[in-house]
Amino acid sequence: QVQLAESGGGLVQAGGSLRLSCEVSGSLVSVNNMGWFRQGPGKQRELVAYISSGGSTNYADSVKGRFTISRDNAKNTVYLQMNSLKPEDTAVYYCNTRTRIYGWGQGTQVTVSS
What we know:
Blueprint (H helix, E strand, L loop, with lengths): L2 E5 L2 E4 L4 E8 L8 E6 L6 E6 L5 E3 L7 E6 L4 E6 L8 E7 L10 E6 L1
Parallel strand pairs: 2-10
Antiparallel strand pairs: 1-3, 3-8, 4-5, 4-9, 5-6, 7-8, 9-10
């Protein structure tokens, strides 16, 4: 059974940075298109970035130029480096495949204060 374990969230001031990690067990991050999603208060869960099995990356317009998705195949972990954070980035962040085929992890809360 695939398990997803997100970590690295926290409280940060606007303009700050955080690095999220998603440790995956039961599947290989290198063979899947892995994505980071977020769900803000009262909002639907949205895809903010993904990395293909070939290593190409794609970002939502709202985070382009500020967030960077990467992976470490040896650690079977996907990362999301978030810079220049804004209050509107406040959300619970989750990882999954781009097409959401696995059960969701617990997520990690990111709160950006103005």
